[in-house]
Amino acid sequence: MSPKPLALSTMYAQQDRFADGADFARYAADAGYDAIEISHSTRQDKLEQILAAAALPVTSVHQPAPWDRYHDGRGNSHLNLAAVDEGERRAAVDYARTSIDWAARIGARRLVVHLGAAWDQDGMFPEEYEMRRMFDSGRANEEAFPELRTAAIARRRTMAEPCLEAARKSLVELVHVAEPARIVIGLENRYHYHEIPHPDEYELLLDGLVNEQAGYWHDTGHAEVLHRLGFIDRHAWLPRLSTRIVGAHLHDVLGIGDHRAPGDGDVDWSYITSGLSHLPAFTLEINQHQSDARVHSAPAFLESVGLR
Hints:
Blueprint: E1 6-9, H1 21-30, E2 35-38, H2 44-53, E3 58-62, H3 86-106, E4 110-113, H4 126-136, H5 144-178, E5 184-188, H6 202-206, E6 214-219, H7 220-228, E7 245-250, E8 252-254, E9 257-260, H8 269-276, E10 282-284, H9 292-304
Parallel strand pairs: 1-2, 1-10, 2-3, 3-4, 4-5, 5-6, 6-7, 7-10
Antiparallel strand pairs: 8-9
Helix pairs in contact: 1-2, 3-5, 4-5
């Protein structure tokens, strides 16, 4: 049986040596990858250079690629598809529609979507910010840590309902745009507690939609980090959502630092393998600080844990 295809995200391309996207495309091919995912940090000129190089196919686009700056100075990835403010939500939808247009032009059949947040400010809840500082400094065993977590949970609970309604509205609009091009929308589990969706929110969001329209996109690092902070158990996603999975981002975690190459962390891959092994392909989201050696060795590591 042939190994499952692996795509390398352009997250790794955010380095000076890959200022020309063609260099990244050739690098990914030489490193043994089969495809590329365009991340939301990728500018249009780099995207076009990757396509012109024709070194590897682009199989997925991560909304809201390509990167752009909104008129208020924010990067377009900071706009909220779950915003109660209709102007904010509409602007976020417009950027996501641009991502769909690019995916259709490229021939990519998967669009990874960040569906927004139950929070009307930029950045994470202040309670979570402090928790992450405490964790990184070895203070997660202090009494304040669970108290902060309880406060963050309560804060989200008071804000979630109207944001989930807005998120569902945005998703349905995007499905209607993507469906004619046979592009499947993958709703990614997120890195911060205030973000959408949580495991028990997928049923509402995906109600009436089939996997050919929209489904679950599993991110191994995000699930692990929220588990280590005590917010959401890592097993809450898999196998619960396995039948709705349409794709996955694979990366490792050390402490609460994610986007490490698979094999360069301490994630328990056994439950991931059991929950994802039915997928036909995977995307590796490796950050730009990882070594070439780790990028090159990741495919063999994934084979060793049964994911190829």
